[in-house]
Amino acid sequence: MTTPARNLPQLLAEAKRWFDDALLASMRAAGEQPVTVGQAAVFAALDDEGTTVSALARSMGVTRQTAHQAVHALIGMGLLEQSPDPASARSRLIRPTAEGARVHRRAQNTLRVIEGVLAERIGSDAVAALREALTVPPGEPPLVDAP
Predict the structure, then answer these.
(1) What pTM was computed for the model?
(2) Which of 12, 26, 76, 85 is 20 to 30 A from residue 18's alpha carbon, by CA?
(3) What are the structural domains of the chain?
(4) Is residue 104 over pLDDT 80?
């Protein structure tokens, strides 16, 4: 029996998992506090002015409860802090602490090195083409009728 070819979403998910595994293992090997993939994703969704948990959840594509759990775990680790949102008395803004900012910079540098490893394996032209293709706005998701 022939195994069906993996579709593009499966391939993208596997590639993301490869980067996540490399990043988290590299950070642990460097002596950083272990975090989950979901906790690491919080940092990618933060903006410089601070971000509400609701905005983090929307950006990450998870429930507010899931984002809240990740944020509070990171607060407990000393990587994030929360402060009142001047625009809303009911909201709190989430920001990295100085330690969280340091760890995030290290993670960004680590990802650049991991991307370099990928370029060595598949070629820098392939990585550049992949980056270019993935940065083109795909537009609204299509509604299709497949046979």
Answers:
(1) 0.86
(2) 76
(3) 34-129 (1.10.10.10)
(4) yes
